[in-house]
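FIELD: query
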Amino acid sequence: MLKPEERFARRRRRTRYWIRKRAKGKPRLSVFRSNKHIYGQIIDDERGHTLVTASSLDRALREELGKGSDKEAARRVGRLLAERARAAGIEKVVFDRGGYRYHGRVKALADGAREGGLQF
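FIELD: result
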């Protein structure tokens, strides 16, 4: 029987495989979810550079949010990420949920990014 970490790594590899097949030169919006915070970054895989980043720890959000571990915080992080991406000239991305299910905070971050103007 596989350990939970190994199952998570398999899901992440499987997700990244399909993202690589469908990306076609678009940057990747990657999500990391911890127990207390949520992070999002837009990565150019061809060059290996992070283009834009946002998290519930950003000064712009930290004072406004009560805690960084709820769906509202994730939605706000998604909007902030989309604003920064548009300022950097990025409009279309590929969403990388990693090994997480597209549910709860991960879905809220994606919805916030769409509200902010990112297309995926």
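FIELD: remark
Residues 4-116 form a domain with the Nucleotidyltransferase; domain 5 fold (CATH 3.30.420.100).
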